[in-house]
Each structure stands twice: as structure tokens, then as C-alpha cells.
Amino acid sequence: MKEMKIVKSELASFLDSLTSEYKVFAPVKRDGFVAFQEIHSGGEALLDYVNSKKPPKEIFLPQSEVLFTYRLGGEGLGIEEPTFEDKPMVIFGIRPCDARSLVILDNIFNSQEYKDVYYTNKREKTSVIAIGCNQPSSTCFCTSLGGGPFSPEGSDLLLIDIDQEYVVQAVTDRGEKLVKKHSQFRQVKPRGLSLMQKVTQKAEALIKSKVETGKVKTKLDGMFEDPFWDWLHEKCLGCAVCTYLCPTCHCFDIADEATDRGGRRLRIWDTCAFPLFTLEASGVNPRPTNKERMRQRVMHKFKYFVDNHNVAACVGCGRCIKECPVNLDMRAVLNSILIR
């Protein structure tokens, strides 16, 4: 399908029409920061932003999620699984790095070997509409991970800002159907395509950070006992901001909340940065200090995940760099590994 366009002044009406049929999530500014939340009118969506502080992964993998409830009655133990909402969903305004992170999460929760029904139920009925990054942040390094400010991977539609209009690329059949269904999309003129080329080239040139991540895994293969880990962790606070704001981190804990006659089982975000993450019932902890936990974070993202899925568990969004309270920069960590 050829590129189309949508005039910015008609974007709100397009979103309004979506809310009548879909559960629509879009970036909004609440309590001083940008996050993805459900909207009920097009005017609620925030378009002038670099990226959300929290990634939209929680739409598919909530921070806390009930897996089932149970109750002991006269006929024994009864288990009730949650009902899934039938209404389809749209994520609007997601950045290309976050759209690509969903493809990475699919390796865990929607693979051929294992399908997590809580994740896949939401994922399979969701259309993803991304907006490219005209002004990448100084902490972005998506091009080092195989992505880019206008990467289409993980999106159904990709919108590219050319001042008063967006050029619209239909990436999938689902995206093409959305375009055909809504009258706000029209044929783009050659001038619009020319502007798109200039915008994309300018934005890509703004990403100055370059890390040869393809070589990191080979280095890490022989670095498990390297003295490098002895000092790398020293200023890390173990606060887990980097993991909770990461669009690809997916570790979780399972907890039961019980009463005398029943209860519920929950899945809750967890992180390898916490001492309790690997604490065994015996009292033994195989990762007793920050050193082992920092090593695990780096190894998991850039070695173990690559071994298992042939892709790094990182999209270069830069949240872990921007929000780290002690300025621990993952780009510097990876470049330090490369010179070992």
C-alpha cells in the first residue's frame, strides 16, 4: 500500500472514531510525567512529547495482575479464572523503540513453545499506531540495537510528522484496514514524501550514540569471572528504576493472597536488582551482592537473551540512562565491555 497522509487537525476526530470501537491507549500527561492511559476522546492524547517515562508494556503485562481466584466451599476447591475483555484495543502514539520492544516480549510470552494467555489475549487484539521520533533524546541509542527513530517493526501504522500533516505508512494488513476504514486518510502528495525523507534523515543524524552491540555478546561469553564486575556495580543503588522503566524487562513474582476460605494468585513485576529476587527458601542467595545482580542484568540482556532468541533484550530507548539517580550509563557499560 502506498503512503497516505492525515492532517493534524483531523487527528482528534480519527481518535474519536476509534474510541467508539476500540479501547484506546495514548500518551497523556498526569502528575507531571507522560504515561500511556486509556482515553475517551481524541483531545486527551498528548502529541508533543519525546517519550513516556513508563513504557506501555504494562498494557500487556500489568504491574500487578490477578491470574485466578480460589474458594473452598462445600463441594471442595473452586477456581475461577478472570474473564478477558472482548473489546479490541489500540495503542496510539507509541514510539518506534517501544513498538519494537513488544516484538521482543513476544519471544517470552507469545512464542511457539509457550503462550501466556494473559499476555496474548491482549496482544493479539491490539493495533499499534506509532509516531516516529523527529527529535530523539540525547540518551537514545536505538540505531545501535537494530532499530531507529522511524523503525516500523512492531507497528501496524507508522506516522511521520511533516509539520501540518503526518505521512502514514501501513506496515501490516491490520494497519492497512485501519487506513481504508477511516476517511481522514488521504493520498499524500510528492512534496509530502520529499519532506518525509528530509525529516527522517535529520532525525537519524541526531542520534550520536554508537555502540557496537553486535560484538558485546562475544565478549560476554568469556567474562563471567572477569574483574570488570568487581567495580562496575560500585555506584549502583539497587533501586531498580532501570528495570521497572525498561520496555523489555519482564521478570515477575507469583504471590498468593489468602483468606480462611479462599484467595487469589497474582503476578507482580519483580527485578533482578533486588536481593530477594533469587533468595531461596533455604536462606541461600546465589546473587548475594550488587556485583552478581549487576552482572546478571547485563548478561541477561546482551548474552543470555541473545543466546536464546538471537536478539538483545534492549531497544536503546535510553530510559535507564535518563532516570538513573547515579548516572550509570548503559552505553558506557557496553563500550567498556568492548575494550576488555
Describe it for me?
- The protein is of the alpha+beta class and 340 residues long.
- The chain has two domains: 203 residues, no CATH class; 126 residues, no CATH class.
- Helices cover 30% and strands 22% of the residues.
- It has eleven helices and twelve strands.
- The strands form two sheets. An eight-stranded mixed beta sheet has the order 3-2-6-7-8-9-1-10.
- Strand 11 and strand 12 form a beta hairpin.
- The longest helix is centred in the C-terminal third of the chain and has 20 residues.
Largest sheet, if any?
A: 8 strands, mixed
Task: Tell me the structural class.
Answer: alpha+beta
Succession of helices and strands: EHEEEEEHHEEEHEHHHHEEHHH
User: Percent of residues in helical segments?
Assistant: 25-40%
Strand order of the largest sheet: 3-2-6-7-8-9-1-10
Q: Which percent range describes the beta-strand content? A: 15-25%
Rg is 22 Å
Provide a count of the helices: 11
Note the overall shape: globular
End-to-end CA span? 47 Å
